[in-house]
Here is the input.
Amino acid sequence: MPRLRRGERMVVLAHLLMQAPDRLHSLADFADLLGAAKSTISEDLALLRAACERFGLGRIVTSPGASGGVRFQPHRTPSQTRRLVEGLCARLREPGRVLPGGFLQMTDLISTPQVAAELGEVFATLFWDARPDCVLTMEVKGIPLALMTARAFNVPMVTIRREGKITDGPSVSVNYLSGSSQIVQAMTLPLRAIPSRARVLFIDDFLRGGGTARGVHDLMREFQAEVVGIGVFVETERPADKMLDRYLALITYRGVGASGEALVGPSRWIEAL
Amino acid sequence: MPRLRRGERMVVLAHLLMQAPDRLHSLADFADLLGAAKSTISEDLALLRAACERFGLGRIVTSPGASGGVRFQPHRTPSQTRRLVEGLCARLREPGRVLPGGFLQMTDLISTPQVAAELGEVFATLFWDARPDCVLTMEVKGIPLALMTARAFNVPMVTIRREGKITDGPSVSVNYLSGSSQIVQAMTLPLRAIPSRARVLFIDDFLRGGGTARGVHDLMREFQAEVVGIGVFVETERPADKMLDRYLALITYRGVGASGEALVGPSRWIEAL
Here is the structure.
């Protein structure tokens, strides 16, 4: 292989690292692949780390020693996060988004891959220390956010269904009280979907009463799995008394304004970043 | 801003281009952002193009002239595609994947973000010339594939639901004959979900009789939208007579082998690449 220039090596390194976040790569593997000395790769990585920091592309983390190596960690700075959330709030205030009953139409936004990918990196940044083994969501609208969060953690995404499907094999179901409509609903998950003692991060689009998230806790208990975090895109201000204490929302929906627009703003967690 | 080295510029350029496939960037914008001359950026891009080609990372496409610029096109070579599909076939042959009734359990595979992302790039490569404005899927299991395909095209993803939801606003529904179970089912989509005269690419996880895809054609007619392609992850060999002629599958499922394993292999489209 003809010798590569530094810029070419850096692009390939960036690609390999960013495609599989949190995976440990050894300098020796990189040196083999790129036909360069380990000391050269080390210099490439130092430059890459600086460029990533300066342009807010995420973090290149190196760990020393025989078992060491280098990994990529998606990271959104507080100012990047606030800018993203404020931009999305502006979109949510657009006329026509509030439907009868006060429902907020936001599926188009969170199904835009670019938006979902950025939000996934935000959730990964906020929940990084929770180190989930998988990202869980409830069908249907939260799936894009959950998938992109799972991508940023490089872990599988698992979708809870309302009803079991014949294509799923043996399943576990629990009933739960929906916080918003106060009716009993079911959620079901195939037995093999979650390994025992898994650490799961629950990501959803919307949280009103918190009944669904509470049901997820109950369901995970049946799997001997631990819910290590709950992240939602939009929470409602009311009821103030949610059915669970610990969750994190990006946007707070406070009701409908005088001209029919949604009253939304960055949540208290985002304000405090 | 202190002057950047070539490697740093190339990493930032690669990131900006790859984050938003098919978006045209001008050299002048890049020059401004990176504090370099346009001729320098032009050299950076030439090196980036070569590195992307050599390592199979996709294509950097430049268009000349006043309205010209540079864009990124995700691209999987035939050999990359065959390797990916063969690896997934091996996973689908694992014991325990065939459920009673011959149903093939594959949700875990296509919900793994890395796998979905690679398949999305494969679909984008295969359907690139169709130039869709949006990627459409039917809830639930196809969503990860559709989202990652939409990401590779940098267009929105739209999910058809079985039932309308109050949070969706006014909707259009059609009934269709499910090819596999020969029962009448409904599919529904909010009126505002698809702009008139949109070019839509339908992506789904599984195709047996083709009834769903046929229903999608009917539904899109109501939106004055055009189905410019249909791509599925797995098709069944039987019935040989599908309810539609034009679609593309990556994997063909031929039935269950002597020891209960799925008989799967690359489809004729993949074989012909």
Observations:
- Strands of chain A lie at 59-63, 69-73, 134-138, 157-160, 171-177, 184-190, 199-207, 226-236, 248-256, 262-266.
- The first strand of chain A starts at residue 59 and ends at 63.
